[in-house]
Amino acid sequence: MLNFLKVAKKVSISSILLLSLSGALHAQTENDTTTELKPHGVLWGSAFGDFAYKGNADNLARGNNQYGTVPANTNLLQWRRVYLGYSYEISKSFSADIVMAAENDYAAGLLGQPANAISTNVKTVAGQTGTTTTLGTLAFGNNGDILLNNKFVPYIKLANLRWKNLWKGTDLVFGQMNGPAYGINGRNNQTSEEVWAYRSIEKTVSDLAGTPCFDFGAELQGWFDDKGNFGYDVMVANGQQAKPENDPYKWISADVYAKFFDKRLIIDLYQDYEKLHWGVYNAGPNGTWYHDRNTTKLFAAWNSKKITIGFEGFQTTLLGDVKVSGKDGNTYYRTTDAIAMSFFVRGRIVSDNKDRAKLSFFARYDNFDPSGNLNNIANDINTKAYTATTAAYDPTTKTQFMVLGFDYTPLKNIHIMPNFWIFTYNSSLTDNTKNEALNNFVTSGKGTDAVWRLSFYYIFGK
What we know:
This protein has 462 residues and is mainly beta. The chain has helices spanning 2-8, 13-22, 192-196, 205-208, 374-379, and strands at residues 40-56, 74-89, 94-103, 117-125, 132-141, 155-167, 170-178, 214-223, 230-237, 251-260, 265-281, 288-303, 307-326, 331-351, 357-369, 383-388, 397-408, 414-427, 447-460. The protein folds into two domains: 2-25 and 48-85 and 241-460, Porin (Beta Barrel); 108-151, no CATH class. Helices cover 7% and strands 53% of the residues. A 16-stranded antiparallel barrel has the order 1-2-3-6-7-8-9-10-11-12-13-14-15-17-18-19. A two-stranded antiparallel sheet has the order 4-5.
């Protein structure tokens, strides 16, 4: 699989762009206006949360997840996500979507503590030059989507305009939207996010690892055939998700997919690239710092009414991501690789009288190893210390994730889901790491976050 991912990485995004642009030869000169579409819209929303009990906690709090900093023996009753959206059909050719989201993304600190405060003195010149008057102190939250008073704060997660059939089979979407790795744009239904179908339980492995699930940019979504069995997505975006652009670089992502056997077999190949820091001069033998990331991902699934089995695997290469402080006083930049594999299954146990799932099951296992090249870095006789620039790809810790549960659906769009959620952590550095300065990163045994949950999920307006 690793060899396949390395070969797949050679697939050029530019070639995908050429394929998409070739569709322009069949561009429609005029849309069918025989029947006018009356503008209309729909207000919709969804929410999911849990009653959760954390039975075990990792002593080192290594988890970068919603329970990572929650102490053992804590019980919680809370929403994890609340969405409010409005979808509007402007005409046959144009539609628009906007989604507000409130999410409990705790960046740091224990659950229940107020968000971190950053105090900034605001001053103004009063009178002659050199005299200043302090007007006061502003406090800003710095803890995910939580305000200083520990309440959720909604933000604009999606806001986009879709130009349908810009040319035959291809839509152009502009604004803030889900990227090619995640779909959920009501178009192709071929990504791991869509087929896994349990975002209310946990993100996909690539989402957990930091591949942006939404961003502000422009995207082409196209089909190579009339039935949607073969298609592509290409996107150019800021790479900042909901935040304003703060650098001159763009996140470029694309995928191609194919569906076989009446769309039961799905194969999706994804590639992205983003410069993070480029041409930044630093003193020392390395000189200019070149830092980027690129991910190659393969998703394959057998998707049927009774059972769905899926596999997602990716490799992310981070050029110059690890800053090494050398014993010689210089700073060096080292490249690492992160590899992940995820397997999931979900299926129907009981159906209702309308042949809809009444009781289902789901299970998933992930293995994430961001440690590529770390032991070589640590064992270098010149290494004094190191820092991973990209937090989501900290090479110090390997993680495994597992979830198992049931989905009871008393009515359409209402889900009650008892489940067992568990993360385990291992040090990436071996016990025989020679560099004594790094021995504090070597931990004996596993750390575990284990949570029993009764999860709730509902949708309205759809």
